[in-house]
C-alpha cells in the first residue's frame, strides 16, 4: 500500500495541466453529487419502478433456489423414493423461466434508462456550452471539453443505469437471504454475517485511493483527446514541417502517463475485488465448519445445512457485484465531477438579474412598436465607448482609455500593428467580452443594461478565418437567418460575390462543403461567411479582414456590394490592406491598446503620422510586387 500511496509528480503535473477548479474535488464519495446525478434517472419513474420490480423478482427467485434444494433433500430424507420429484422439478423449471424473462427485462430496461440519461446529460451540457462566454473557451482545450461529452458521459450513464439495477437487486437478495437464514437458524446466520464489517472496513480503505487514481486517468484522457484533435486539425502543418516523429514522441509521453495512471487504478481494483471474494469464501467456510459441527451434534438437519451453504455463498454474490461497482463508482464520480462542472459553468458575460426580470415581464405583456423586449429601442443608431479598458485574467491591459463613437451609416476602419488590440476592441463592441473599465453605450445606455441576446442577434460578423459548418452551401448561408427564402439567399450571395463560384459547382447551392468546409477554398469559405452575415440583416456589421483570402477582382465586387449593404448600419472593419478602407467614414489607428490617430483617409495622410507611414510602406510593397511580377513576364 505504501508504494501505491506514493506521490507521482508526473501524474500531478498532468492533473495540474488539465486541472482547472473542476478537477480539484474531494477524494471521498459525495452523496449530494450522486443524488443530483440520479435525478437524471429518477425522471423516468415508470421505467425505474418496472426495473426495481423486476430486480426484486430476480433476487427473490435466486434466493429461492437454495430453499428448493433444502425442500428436495428434506423430502427425500422423510419420504425416500416417494418424494414429490415432479413437483420439485416443475417448481425449479418455473423459477428458471421467471429468471430468464426477468434477466431479459433487466437488460432492456437498464439499457433504455442508460440511453435516456445519456441523452439528457449530453443535451444539457451542450446547451450550456452554447451559453458560455468566449473566456471559458480561452482557458480550456478542445480535448478537455470533448472528453467530458464522450468518455466521461459514457462512464457516468453506464453506472447510473446498471449500478442502480445491481444495488436494488443486491439489497433485495441480501435482505431476502438474511431473513431466510435467520429464520432457519439465527446462530449459524450470525456466523455467516461476521465478515460483513470487515468488508465495510476494506471498502473504506480503498475508496480514496481508487477515486484519486480515477481522477488521474480522466485528466490524462482529456489531454490525449486534445492531442488527437490538434493532430488531425494540424496535419498539413505537421507534414509541411516534417514533425511526425517529434509529435509521436510527445504523444508517447502522454500515452505513457495514461498507462501508468490506468495501471495504478486497475491495480487497486484488482486488489480490492479479490479481497472481497476472499472474505466471501471465508464466510462460506466458517458456515461450513459451524454447520458441520451443529449437524454432528444433531442440532441441524442436512437439508438446512445444504441450504445454508448455498445461501451463504449467494449472500456474497451481491457483495462481489457491489464491490465491482464500488470501484467503478470511484471512476464514475471523477467523470461526474467533470461533466457537472461543464453543466454548472456560468457565462462571465450574461444578462443581469434586472435585465432578466425586464425580459420576463416583456414576454408576458404587449410592447409598443419599435420597443425591444428589454424596454429599449429596437434600432441602434449610435455606439459609444467611454474610457474603455480591458485586460485578460492576470495579464497586462490590452486596451486602455478607449474613447470612440460611431453613428448609423458610418463605417469605422480599425488599423494598426499586429497585437495592438484591434480584434479585442471589436470583441468588446460585440460584447463577446465586457470592458474591465469604462462603458460601452448603445444610444446612451450601457449595453450591460440591455439584453445580451438582443445585441448579438443584431450583429453580423465576418472573420478572417471563416468557419463553415458541415452541410450544403445553402444551409451555411441560411444559418444567418433560418427563415430566409431561396431568393434572399441568392441575393445575399450575389452581394457577397459568392454567387458566381457557387453556380459553377456541380450541385450549385446544394453542394456539400464537407466537415469544416474542407471542400471549399479559404476564399470561398470567406465569401460564404460574408453572404451569411449579409442575410442576417444586422444593425452592426463587423468585418475582421473579411476579404483577406479573395482575389482582387472578387474584392472589387464585394466593395460594390458593400455600398448597398452598409446603408442604415454601423460598421466596423479591421483591415491590414489599407487600400480597401480608403472610403471609410473614419479610420482609427490602434497601437499598444490605445487610439493614436483618428480621421478619414485624406486627413490622416496630411497628418503624416502612423497611418501615413503604414500606407506609404504598403504602397511601396505593392508597387515592388507588381514590378517583380512584370519582370517575370
Structure description:
This protein is of the alpha/beta class. The protein folds into two domains: 9-344, ABC transporter transmembrane region fold, CATH 1.20.1560.10; 357-453 and 584-622, Rossmann fold (3-Layer(aba) Sandwich). The protein contains 22 helices and ten strands. The chain has a six-stranded mixed beta sheet with strand order 6-7-8-3-9-10. The protein has a four-stranded antiparallel beta sheet with strand order 2-1-4-5, covered by helices on one side. Helix 3 (45-79) packs antiparallel against helix 4, helix 7 (186-193) runs antiparallel to helix 10 and helix 8 packs across helix 12 (317-344). It is elongated.
Summed up:
This protein is an alpha/beta fold and 633 residues long. Helices cover 64% and strands 9% of the residues.
Q: Which CATH class of the largest domain is shown? A: Mainly Alpha
* CATH H-level superfamily of the largest domain: ABC transporter type 1, transmembrane domain
Question: How would you state the average pLDDT, rounded?
Answer: 79
**What's the architecture of the largest domain in CATH terms?**
Up-down Bundle
Strand arrangement across the biggest beta sheet: 6-7-8-3-9-10
Major sheet attributes:
6 strands, mixed
What is the CATH T-level topology of the largest domain? ABC transporter transmembrane region fold
Number of domains: 2
What percent strand?
5-15%
* Outline: elongated
Query: Low-confidence stretches at least 5 residues in length (pLDDT < 50)?
Result: 1-27
Total number of helical segments?
22
Helix content: 55-70%
Structural class: alpha/beta
Could you tell me how far the N terminus lies from the C terminus, measured between alpha carbons in angstroms? 78 Å
Radius of gyration: 35 Å
Amino acid at each position: 500500500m505504501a508504494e501505491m500511496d506514493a506521490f507521482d509528480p508526473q501524474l500531478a503535473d498532468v492533473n495540474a495541466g488539465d486541472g482547472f477548479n473542476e478537477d480539484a474535488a474531494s477524494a471521498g464519495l459525495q452523496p449530494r453529487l450522486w443524488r443530483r446525478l440520479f435525478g437524471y434517472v429518477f425522471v423516468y419513474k415508470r421505467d425505474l419502478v418496472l426495473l426495481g420490480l423486476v430486480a426484486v423478482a430476480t433476487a427473490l427467485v435466486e434466493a429461492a433456489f437454495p430453499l428448493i434444494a433444502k425442500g428436495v433433500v428434506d423430502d427425500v430424507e422423510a419420504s425416500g423414493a416417494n418424494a414429490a420429484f415432479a413437483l420439485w422439478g416443475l417448481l425449479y423449471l418455473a423459477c428458471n423461466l421467471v429468471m430468464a424473462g426477468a434477466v431479459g427485462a433487466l437488460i432492456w430496461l437498464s439499457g433504455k434508462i442508460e440511453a435516456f440519461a445519456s441523452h439528457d446529460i449530453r443535451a444539457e451540457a451542450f446547451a450550456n456550452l452554447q451559453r458560455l462566454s468566449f473566456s471559458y473557451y480561452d482557458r480550456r482545450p478542445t480535448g478537455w471539453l470533448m472528453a467530458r461529452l464522450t468518455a466521461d458521459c459514457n462512464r457516468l450513464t453506464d453506472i447510473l443505469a446498471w449500478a442502480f439495477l445491481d444495488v436494488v437487486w443486491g439489497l433485495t437478495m441480501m435482505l431476502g437471504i438474511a431473513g431466510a437464514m435467520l429464520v432457519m437458524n439465527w446462530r449459524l446466520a450470525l456466523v455467516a454475517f461476521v465478515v460483513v464489517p470487515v468488508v465495510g472496513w476494506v471498502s473504506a480503505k480503498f475508496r480514496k485511493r481508487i477515486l484519486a487514481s480515477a481522477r488521474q486517468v480522466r485528466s490524462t484522457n482529456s489531454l490525449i483527446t486534445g492531442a488527437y484533435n490538434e493532430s488531425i486539425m494540424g496535419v498539413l502543418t505537421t507534414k509541411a514541417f516534417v514533425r511526425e516523429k517529434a509529435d509521436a514522441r510527445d504523444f508517447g509521453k502522454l500515452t505513457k502517463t495514461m498507462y501508468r495512471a490506468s495501471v495504478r487504478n486497475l491495480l487497486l481494483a484488482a486488489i480490492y475485488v479479490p479481497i472481497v471474494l476472499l472474505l466471501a469464501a471465508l464466510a462460506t467456510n466458517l458456515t461450513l465448519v459451524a454447520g458441520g459441527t451443529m449437524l454432528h451434534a444433531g442440532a441441524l438437519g442436512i437439508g438446512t445445512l445444504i441450504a445454508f451453504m448455498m445461501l451463504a455463498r449467494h449472500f456474497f454474490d451481491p457483495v462481489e457485484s457491489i464491490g465491482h461497482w464500488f470501484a467503478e463508482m470511484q471512476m464514475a464520480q471523477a467523470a461526474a465531477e467533470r461533466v457537472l462542472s461543464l453543466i454548472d459553468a456560468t457565462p462571465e458575460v450574461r444578462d443581469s438579474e434586472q435585465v432578466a426580470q425586464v425580459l420576463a415581464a416583456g414576454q408576458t405583456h404587449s410592447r409598443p412598436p419599435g420597443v425591444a423586449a428589454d424596454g429599449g429601442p429596437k434600432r441602434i443608431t449610435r455606439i459609444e465607448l467611454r474610457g474603455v479598458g480591458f485586460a485578460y485574467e492576470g495579464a497586462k491591459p490590452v486596451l486602455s482609455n478607449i474613447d470612440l463613437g460611431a453613428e448609423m451609416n458610418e463605417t469605422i476602419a480599425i488599423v494598426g500593428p499586429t497585437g495592438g488590440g484591434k480584434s479585442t476592441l471589436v470583441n468588446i463592441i460585440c460584447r463577446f467580452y465586457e470592458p474591465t473599465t469604462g462603458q460601452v453605450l448603445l444610444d446612451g445606455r450601457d449595453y450591460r443594461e440591455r439584453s445580451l441576446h438582443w445585441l448579438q442577434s443584431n450583429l453580423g460578423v465576418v472573420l478572417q478565418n471563416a468557419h463553415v459548418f458541415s452541410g450544403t452551401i445553402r444551409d451555411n448561408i441560411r444559418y444567418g437567418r433560418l427563415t430566409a427564402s431561396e431568393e434572399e439567399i441568392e441575393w445575399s450571395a450575389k452581394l457577397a460575390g459568392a454567387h458566381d463560384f457557387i453556380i459553377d459547382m456541380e450541385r450549385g447551392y446544394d453542394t456539400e462543403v464537407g466537415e469544416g468546409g474542407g471542400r471549399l477554398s479559404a476564399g470561398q469559405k470567406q465569401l460564404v461567411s460574408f453572404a451569411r452575415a449579409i442575410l442576417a440583416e444586422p444593425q452592426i456589421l463587423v468585418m475582421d479582414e473579411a476579404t483577406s483570402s479573395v482575389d482582387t477582382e472578387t474584392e472589387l465586387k464585394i466593395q460594390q456590394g458593400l455600398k448597398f449593404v452598409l446603408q442604415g448600419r454601423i460598421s466596423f472593419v479591421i483591415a491590414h490592406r489599407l487600400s480597401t478602407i480608403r472610403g471609410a467614414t473614419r479610420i482609427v489607428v490602434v497601437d499598444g491598446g490605445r487610439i493614436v490617430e483618428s480621421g478619414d483617409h485624406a486627413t490622416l495622410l496630411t497628418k503624416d503620422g502612423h497611418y501615413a507611414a503604414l500606407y506609404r510602406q504598403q504602397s511601396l510593397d505593392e508597387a515592388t510586387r507588381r514590378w517583380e511580377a512584370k519582370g517575370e513576364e
